[in-house]
Amino acid sequence: MQSFSEKKARQQLDRSLELIEQIKNDKNHAKSKLKIFKKLTLAKNDYEEAKKEAENKYNEKLNKLFRVICASDDYETAFEMRLLGGFGYKQDIAQGQELIKKASRLGLTSAITWLCNFTK
Fold first, then answer.
1. What's the rounded Cα separation, in Å, for the pair 69 and 71?
2. How far apart are CA 49 and CA 18, in angstroms?
3. Rounded CA gap, 48 and 43, in Å?
């Protein structure tokens, strides 16, 4: 007598053999795979396009915010947004910290405060 796990294993083996036979007999299998691949490619392209569109909208809003801040003569906030937010730049932590230290030496209050709060 077969145990439950042996029966289950046998059923899985039988099902696998049936699927192999179906694939062998399916003349359109290659075409089906090609259709699936095309759909996946289209889905990936749609995702990439939507991602770029979202990034562009985000950057447009940041740019608008930055222009508003600069126009308000709130230079400290503009400075913080530019350096701490990384707006418009590739992120470089070490360079950002050096620029904040330089601004601190020049007497910019927000840079001095930032150094006091976030450095050891």
1. 5
2. 41
3. 9
Cα 6 from Cα 13, distance rounded (Å): 10
Instruction: Give me the amino acid identity at 59.
Output: N
User: CB atoms < 10 A from the CB of 115, how many?
Assistant: 15
The residue type of 108 is L
Closest CA to 107 of 96, 117, 115: 115
The pTM score is 0.40
The domain segmentation of the chain, as residue ranges, is: 1-72, 73-120
Q: How far apart are CA 113 and CA 108, in angstroms?
A: 9
What are 86-102's pLDDT values in tens digits?
655 677 788 888 888 99
* Kind and range of the H or E run holding 28: none
Alpha-carbon gap, residue 75 to 96, rounded angstroms: 17
Cα 115 from Cα 111, distance rounded (Å): 6
Distance from the Cα of residue 11 to its chain's centroid: 43
Structure token pair of residue 32: 């089906």
